[in-house]
Amino acid sequence: MNEIAAHVPDRIIELREILEISALDMAKETGIPFEVYSGYEEGKIDIPISVLYTIAGRLGTDVTVLLTGEEARMDSAAVCRKGKGVQIERYPGYEFASLAYNFKHRTIEPLLVTLDSSKPPAAKVSHAGQEFNFVTEGQVRVAVVNTEHILNQGDSIYFDARLPHSQSAVNGKAQFLTIIQEK
Question: Which of 17, 21, 45, 139 is deepest in the core (most CB within 10 A)?
């Protein structure tokens, strides 16, 4: 876990305590089983980006606060220079950079995801909304429910993110842009 991701549970706990919400109530109100929620706060379980949105919403803040400890500042345009997005390593072989972290009241989340096939693939996840993936480098295997799609550089896929899905690199490293709309 990188330095930024390591601080996310601490920020969640701090905000939750300021708002005087118990961990049990937080779990109930976000629809997360208490054992899983506790694992998030203890840093034992990686928090999916979709869950960060749910938690941020309950805490009345922007996900940027959970990721960086700072409020998003831009409301007309936010430029993210190459290599300057907020980098998060969710687990070995799967890292992403938030490309619009500094824009207030985002309705979509553009992320640049880097995968490494030498590491174990991610488990399938599901979350609210829709998702778009565009491969920028290498080959990416996208599994949606029980169907796998092999995407090459320049290929894309759009799907209902409520369906269980995962992405993994086919050979070596791969990178894709994902745009997630939570609503």
Answer: 139
